[in-house]
Amino acid sequence: MHQAPYPYPATLIFGIPGAGKGTQGDILKSIPGFFHVSSGNVFRQMGDATEEARMVRECIRAGELVPDELTIRVFLEHLEAKRHSGEFKPERDLLLLDGIPRAAVQCHLLRPYIDVKLILHLVCHDEDGMIQRIRRRAKLENRPDDYSVEVIRKRFAIYQRQTLPVLQEYPPSVIAEIDSNQTQAEVLLACLSALVPVFKANFPRKLPAGG
Ligand code: ADP
């Protein structure tokens, strides 16, 4: 296997917990040419066999961010494993990152590996709606971290304090603001309108696959 051809072009799916990042990510990842990574999902799949995995589980349970170095290491290991298995093909796939980077330090740590071409910023001001959505998902996906309103509010506060500054790390020209208070189809349309030109610019020879 060749050395990793860093930095990988990437799009960030960005927004406050409950804004609908996961929903859009799930739809977009079914389109050939996009490779989706949700850091929350990667963390939840770690189990609890190691000390690190138990630390991650505790951070998630408390609604706190996992330490930055650990986050980046786990993320890069996941990405490399997917490249080795052939599921992620850097010459073909635009990365869609959901939940990472989530703090300014993570942007710095990722800079040699990830080239952020576009940020889909899902904007939502309906706090009660987001809380409802998160609690519904908690039941459906068995995510006990997401059921306590107290923990959810803490995650909103952490988002404002630690995650929103991520936007300052990139030029405004790469940020597409998308009102997530629309139907899922409308949000998808807005995401695709921003994404497709970025995909074509980075993978100019890709032709649509049949099938
Ligand atoms: P949501 O989509 O509701 O924002 P996620 O599934 O992305 O939730 O994340 C769940 C939890 O995983 C977070 O509350 C945090 O504890 C941890 N986590 C996910 N991504 C990161 C990250 N990039 N840095 C630190 N912690 C993270």
Give the topology:
Layout: E1 8-15, H1 21-28, E2 34-38, H2 39-44, H3 51-62, H4 68-84, E3 94-98, H5 104-110, E4 114-123, H6 127-140, H7 149-163, E5 175-179, H8 184-202
Helix pairs in contact: 1-8, 4-5
Give an overview in words.
- The chain is α/β, with parallel strands linked by helices and 211 residues long.
- It has one domain (11-201): Rossmann fold (3-Layer(aba) Sandwich).
- It is built from eight helices and five strands, in the order βαβαααβαβααβα.
- The protein has a five-stranded parallel beta sheet with strand order 2-3-1-4-5.
- The two termini are 28 Å apart.
- The mean pLDDT is 94.
- The structure holds adenosine-5'-diphosphate.
So how many helices? 8
**What spatial form do the alpha-carbon principal axes imply?**
globular
Bound molecules: adenosine-5'-diphosphate
> How many distinct domains?
1
The share of residues in extended strands comes to 15-25%
Instruction: Write out the CATH superfamily name.
Output: P-loop containing nucleotide triphosphate hydrolases
Give the CATH level 1 class: Alpha Beta
Q: What's the quick description here?
A:
This protein is an alpha/beta fold and 211 residues long. It is built from 8 helices and 5 strands; from the N terminus they run E-H-E-H-H-H-E-H-E-H-H-E-H.
Which features would summarize this protein structure in a list?
single chain, 46% helix, alpha/beta, globular, Rossmann fold, binds adenosine-5'-diphosphate, 211 residues, 5-stranded parallel sheet
